[in-house]
Specification:
The model has no long low-confidence stretch (mean pLDDT 90). The longest helix has 18 residues. This protein has a domain of 181 residues: P-loop containing nucleotide triphosphate hydrolases (Rossmann fold). Strands 8-9-10-5-11-12 form a 6-stranded mixed β-sheet, sandwiched between helices. The protein is of the alpha/beta class. The structure holds adenosine-5'-triphosphate. Adenosine-5'-triphosphate (ATP) binds next to helix 1.
Length: 262
């Protein structure tokens, strides 16, 4: 039987301090199958980025196990990981004079030869990735001169060009307007359905997540990451428990957050 694409077994995530390790939530147990679209949801500061960085190997997890395709994360080489997984941290690309086309082409570097020479196939993949994300018209513009929303789409195009079976995206819908949010969301969902990609995104877009996700990873007020489905999350009132506020309340009937009072 095929191993899960991602598996966390009693995985403790957090940061090291001089006094010792500092986990930011209870041990995590989740398992992701090929082709699943997972939305990681939780209030600000609850640990969404930390979970994604721990799965991608950007930061070490503190204990337990993180397995990618059945292999323990620390034992996977950087080049092997780059072929299996791309991580999109859209707010953190700090880069100087580079065009959109060049930045998206970086996605091909794990696959090019040591001279980083692009084949016609690489160029086609880069072209298609920009096309899918609606940024082909920006290809000769400097990345640093783009709007935040345009940068966001370019970062996603770079990950698509990397053509990894697993893509992790940290808040990929930040800065996007309503239509672009919906477009990127449906693009990501399509990649899972049509191309069997496995995608995990962190997002504050609960309403979109409920419509598209196969599974929700919800970090609640008790510092637990709960793996659930959109239907079960609504049925079991998990959003009401996770987002406690005297200003808004999740309404399970409309599947939206409603203001309690203005
Ligand atoms: N490098 C770090 N060292 C120590 N603590 C950190 C570090 N980075 C983040 N934290 C803390 O870990 C906790 C989780 O942060 P994280 O960025 O993962 O949350 P998040 O859910 O992604 O938040 P947001 O929705 O605001 O982006 C926070 O309390 C944060 O202050």
């Amino acid at each position: 039987m095929k191993a899960p694409v991602i598996q966390l077994k009693s995985a403790l995530v957090g940061y090291g301090h001089r006094e010792g390790v500092c986990p930011i939530m209870l041990p995590i147990n989740v398992s992701v199958k090929e082709g699943e679209f997972i939305c990681l949801i939780g209030e600000n500061g609850k640990g969404k980025s930390t979970v994604l960085k721990s799965i991608s190997g950007e930061i070490p997890y503190l204990s337990g196990e993180v397995l990618i395709n059945g292999k323990l994360l620390p034992s996977i080489s950087a080049s092997e990981l780059a072929e299996q997984m791309s991580l999109v941290l859209t707010d953190r690309i700090q880069i100087g004079m580079i065009t959109v086309g060049e930045l998206v082409a970086f996605g091909r570097y794990p696959f090019t030869n040591w001279l980083a020479k692009m084949t016609p196939l690489d160029l086609q993949i880069v072209h298609d990735a920009m096309d899918s994300c609606g940024v082909l018209n920006l290809k000769d513009r400097y990345y640093s001169n783009l709007s935040d929303g345009e940068k966001q789409k370019v970062a996603i195009a770079r990950a698509l060009a990397q053509q990894t079976p697993l893509i992790l995206l940290d808040e990929p819908l930040n800065h996007l307007d309503l239509i672009n949010k919906a477009e990127i969301f449906s693009l990501l969902k399509r990649l899972c359905v049509d191309f069997k990609k496995t995608i995990v995104i962190s997002t504050h877009q609960v309403e979109l997540a409920l419509q598209a996700a196969d599974k929700i990873w919800l970090i609640n007020g008790k510092h637990q990451l709960i793996e659930t489905t959109p239907e079960a999350a609504i049925e079991n009132h998990l959003f009401e428990e996770a987002f406690i506020s005297d200003k808004v309340k999740f309404d399970p009937l409309t599947k939206t957050f409603q203001l309690k009072a203005i």
